[in-house]
Amino acid sequence: MLDREGFRPNVGIILLNQKNQVFWGKRIRTHSWQFPQGGIDRGESPEQAMFRELHEEVGLLPEHVRIVARTRDWLRYEVPDRFIRRDARGFYKGQKQIWYLLQLVAQDWNVNLRATNHPEFDAWRWNDFWVPLDLVVEFKRGVYEMALTELSRYLPRYENRNRYMRGSVRGQEGDGLAMEYGVMSTPVHMELPPGGTFDPDPQKEINDLSQSIPQSLPRSPT
Fold first, then answer.
1. What is the largest CA-CA distance in the chain?
2. 25 close to 56: Cβ distance less than 8 angstroms
3. What is the DSSP string of 3-19?
4. Per-residue pLDDT averaged across 133-137, rounded?
5. DSSP of 187-205, one letter per residue?
6. What is the pLDDT of residue 119?
7. What angle do CA 171, 176, 179 make, to 5 degrees?
């Protein structure tokens, strides 16, 4: 399901524990780590899609979480042409996302990556809220930064909370943002398993997205 501009509606989920750490899932059979996310089916509201994806990918039910906030508007990213099926170029551009900030109100053991017959993740962990954006796949960095920044204002504020800023927004600009959100701009250094990365698998994602694009689309002119 694409909108008139060629973007597929999607939801992203930032799940917090009681320490304001965020859930990261490892894509099954890869070393790619990311936030849970998924497409909005026809007839679904963003909130309905969020709860469905939360159960499918993390195994949690609505009673296990509390909605803290969501982004006000759609956040968009375009997918490079090299990842788009040739006959869909010119029609499919990328994704537009509503991001939800959720608070886990149940115990960790309620997380179940095998809640369905088609698991998305095979491992998970808690990490600090601010993540190294340079380790996120390039065409998603802007959306991740916008979502984390917009939703960070709903976090409890702690004096020693660290804030990661990319090199391009450090310095005076970073200091201003740190003052606005009451956090520090010291980079967060995260430890991953050997070979681990926060870069989602672009080809896996595009293969999933291509299923929502009609196979009968005419080829774009060369």
1. 56
2. no
3. -TTSEEEEEEEEEE-TT
4. 71
5. PPP----TT-BS---HHHH
6. 94
7. 125
At residue 219 the predicted structure's pLDDT band, cuts being 50, 70 and 90, is: very low
What gap in Å lies between CA 111 and CA 60, rounded to an integer?
A: 6
Residue 120 in contact with residue 35, Cβ under 8 Å?
A: no
Following DSSP, what letter does each residue of 161-182 receive, concatenated? -B----GGG-THHHHHHHHHHT
| SS3 call for 101 | strand
| Dihedral pair phi/psi, residue 86, rounded to 5° | -55, -45
Q: Please give the span between the terminal C-alpha atoms of the chain, in angstroms, as a whole number.
A: 25
CA distance 76 to 94: 7
| φ, ψ dihedrals at 46, nearest 5° | -55, -40
96 three-state secondary structure: strand
User: What is the average pLDDT value for the chain, to the nearest integer?
Assistant: 77
* Sequence-distant (≥ 6) Cβ neighbours of residue 1 within 8 angstroms: 8, 9, 39, 40, 41, 42, 212
> What is the per-residue pLDDT across 70-81, written as a single tens digit (0 to 9) for each?
999 999 999 998
3-state secondary structure of 57: helix
Predicted structure pTM score: 0.72
Total residue count of the chain as it appears in this document: 222
Cα four-point dihedral sign 160, 163, 167, 169 = negative
Neighbours of 22 (CB within 10 A): 21
For residue 131 the two structure tokens come to: 């993540």
